[in-house]
Automatic annotation (TrEMBL):
The gene is RAB23. Its EC number is 3.6.5.2. GO terms for biological process: anatomical structure morphogenesis; protein transport; system development. Its cofactor is Mg(2+). One of its GO terms (molecular function) is G protein activity. One of its GO terms (cellular component) is plasma membrane. It is a lipid-anchor. The keyword Magnesium applies. It is found in: Cell membrane; Cytoplasmic vesicle, Autophagosome; Cytoplasmic vesicle, Phagosome membrane; Endosome membrane. Belongs to the small GTPase superfamily. Rab family. Interacts with SUFU. This is Ras-related protein Rab-23. Keywords: Cell membrane, Cytoplasm, Cytoplasmic vesicle, Developmental protein, Endosome, GTP-binding, Hydrolase, Lipoprotein, Magnesium, Membrane, Metal-binding, Methylation, Nucleotide-binding, Phosphoprotein, Prenylation, Protein transport, Transport. Its main location: membrane.
Length: 177
């Protein structure tokens, strides 16, 4: 049991290849908006949102890589003190899925074993290309099992499952306290 009035703050890192929707996810969750031309250079390290989980006030600080992943130049400061992680790939980008294991390893090396979820974003783009990416969807489920990670399919655009991802992480984090 936590002390009364004690607020829990969790640093969450959101990692994955460029253009999978990481910044959009952070914007969506913290500001409730989706913009196609969102600029990454917003000049802040993270956005935050406060939620109530099992009667505890939890402040989630969502850190944006700000495009550093494009140059394989994510700084140690980005990972430092991270307490939860979202691994994101895109439904329309197989390379971004292939890169997940190496992102996962990087996080493990930098911060160890922290509550982590695997997220397949842009699920709204499934429809007509379904047969093409069916394999990818199945493989993703397999990978999540192998890495023992909770798996979510999201559409940041349509605000599908985004809240669930962060609620799960906050819950998982609280369980470990
Ligand atoms: P990041 O580089 O991983 O931070 O990716 P961005 O957040 O910049 O998103 C890359 C592009 O994908 C932008 O044009 C977004 O509008 C778009 N995008 C992000 N999430 C979704 C989604 O769920 N569905 C669709 N259709 N597009 C998305």
């Amino acid at each position: 049991m936590l002390e009364e009035d004690m607020e829990v703050a969790i640093k969450v890192v959101v990692v994955g290849n460029g253009a999978v929707g990481k910044s959009s996810m952070i914007q969506r969750y913290c500001k409730g908006v989706f913009t196609k031309d969102y600029k990454k250079t917003i000049g802040v390290d993270f956005l935050e949102r406060q939620i109530l989980v099992n009667d505890e006030d939890v402040r989630l600080m969502l850190w944006d890589t700000a495009g550093q992943e494009e140059f394989d130049a994510i700084t140690k400061a980005y990972y430092r003190g991270a307490q939860a992680c979202v691994l994101v790939f895109s439904t329309t980008d197989r390379d971004s899925f292939e890169a997940i294991s190496s992102w996962w390893e990087k996080v493990e090396v930098e911060v160890g074993d922290i509550p982590t979820v695997l997220v397949q974003n842009k699920i709204d783009l499934l429809d007509e290309t379904w047969t093409v990416i069916q394999d990818l969807c199945e493989e993703a489920e397999g990978l999540a099992k192998k890495l023992k990670l909770r798996f979510y399919r999201t559409s940041v655009k349509e605000d599908l499952n985004v809240n669930e991802v962060f609620k799960y992480l906050a819950d998982k984090y609280l369980q470990r306290l």
